[in-house]
Amino acid sequence: MHPHPPILLFDVDGVLLDSRGHFLAALDSMHDRFTNWNYEILARTTSVDIIRMFESGAKKRSIPSLATMLKNFKELIPNRFRRLVYIAMMGRKIDKYDWQFSDFFPGTEKTLRYLRSKGIILGAASNSHRDRIAKWFKLKNVDDLFPLFISRDVRKTYGVKPSPVPLLALLVKIKKYYHFPKIDRNRVAFIGDLITDVQAAQRAKIKSIAVLSGHSARGELEFHNPDYIIPDINSIPQILPKLFPDDKFE
Predict the structure, then answer these.
(1) What is the spatial distance between Cα 11 and Cα 124, in angstroms, rounded to a whole number?
(2) pLDDT digit string (tens) for 25-55?
(3) HSE-up of residue 44 (Cα within 13 Å, Cβ side)
């Protein structure tokens, strides 16, 4: 007898959400002449790099976070004043473009509801902000499927991926919420699109599933040996018998 049903934890961006708006905002900003870019470095920089540099420090009304972003963009934007203007502009642009252009990947809600109908517990662990995640879950009618999730807003307590602590903290919350006697990590998998997601799952000693729908190439992911690599989350039902061989998913 297992102590609980199978548990699937999901990253959000690149897994459930295509994040197209974020990258359109980054591409748009890279053509802004006022910013006075260091074009030699900009030529080697992608929109993914821009978003990662921005999000690694993005936290509303936080002086330490602003300092982090100023440091992140120092080489790309040498002028401190223009860096400040760029950071303020990007914050507004990302928020605007996110709701205009981003969306859940096709079939996401259907797949999530199928998984939940099979008794699988769902959770989410994202390096994005709690308000944004909650808003997207409600907008796409899946908030009932994710009563619990971990966001970057608690990073001072739990850190962020690739640390395993956010995943382990989420499992503790799930254990308490569903009154499970304990958590069997062999019955838990984390689905993500980045190397840091694979590393977090491995360090948490749970199964790792990498998806190709996000921002990492297959070769990058294969190098880090996830348990599974699949095209997108719509392929999860096909691997359930291998993931959890003791369960029946008819």
Answers:
(1) 6
(2) 999 999 988 999 999 999 999 888 898 788 7
(3) 5
